[in-house]
Specification:
The protein is mostly helical. Helices cover 80% and strands 0% of the residues.
């Protein structure tokens, strides 16, 4: 049960760390970031999340708003996963969550 509780938190953490790395690397590299393999790899990790939000968002929304909504949804998923982990750990005892 704990593994199922940790899955949304893990997926959100991977995407959030990829997001932070993508932003930091893009700021450090500058205009030539499109040619950087690491920057493209991090963008590839983020692509499913952005594509899902694009499908749900109105077509008139700018890319900046889509990205902000995706980030907010990832943060909400991480918080939900953390709360679910806490709920499972308190239910089965803290010794089982180590």
């Amino acid at each position: 049960m704990l593994t199922l509780a940790l899955l949304p938190k893990l997926l959100a953490e991977i995407a959030l760390l990829a997001w932070a790395g993508h932003a930091l690397l893009g700021a450090l590299i500058g205009a030539r970031r499109e040619h950087n393999g690491a920057w493209r790899l991090l963008g590839w990790v983020l692509q499913p999340w952005l594509a899902g939000v694009r499908r749900l968002a109105p077509r008139a929304w700018p890319e900046r708003r889509v990205r902000a909504l995706a980030l907010a949804l990832l943060l909400a998923l991480w918080l939900l996963g953390s709360a679910l982990k806490l709920w499972v750990c308190l239910g089965q005892g803290l010794a089982g969550c180590r």
